[in-house]
């Protein structure tokens, strides 16, 4: 029997400002670098994974909201499949670049909004959506999953669903080489990270190098959604993701879930 995690400690009061400064500064690095390959995307490249497309299903004509959209590549990949998309992010420079990208590819049904996730319902004036989508690498930037889940529920129309594809919390605790568990799965305290680079360019020199991040277990995520009144349809674990471990027994690297707001 495992010990249940205790209450999540309070984050630093300025956690959002710290993280926003870091993400604002990442934007030109990501726009100009090879990791996101914006020219390739404009030429038709897709950023969605095969299981995301299968699990979300047909989106033509649906209203889809992408929370924490960053540069909007995933958002616009859904737009290319016929969804009427809204991308939301707390970084104004990222949203500006996403809007430029939408114009470059002719996605005239796409729009982008600057807002903190927790203020999304207010920023969108109570609008509701058929699909709320959140992609990989989003949840570790949020301290309060219960509040996140309530926000998602408020953004969904009855019968609409949340689709989340996220890096698996267990895989995020494994050191890629030699592939061993190096952190505590039940750690819930805010993690103060100092890194002058970006995952997209480790050599980038960022002046705003501090971030605040949180570790959330699968049970934390599912329980928060249930408490917000959403009904879980599935939770899947996937053996492919953002890195490869050495040959041997496998770990889940990504998980995906769909949770419906009852009619």
Automatic annotation (TrEMBL):
InterPro entries: Methyltransf_12, SAM-dependent_MTases_sf. Residues 65-162 form the Methyltransferase type domain. The keyword Methyltransferase applies. One of its GO terms (biological process) is antibiotic biosynthetic process. Its EC number is 2.1.1.-. Gene3D superfamilies: Vaccinia Virus protein VP39 (3.40.50.150). This is Putative methyltransferase. Pfam families: Methyltransf_12 (PF08242). Keywords: Methyltransferase, Transferase. The keyword Ligase does not apply. GO terms for molecular function: methyltransferase activity.
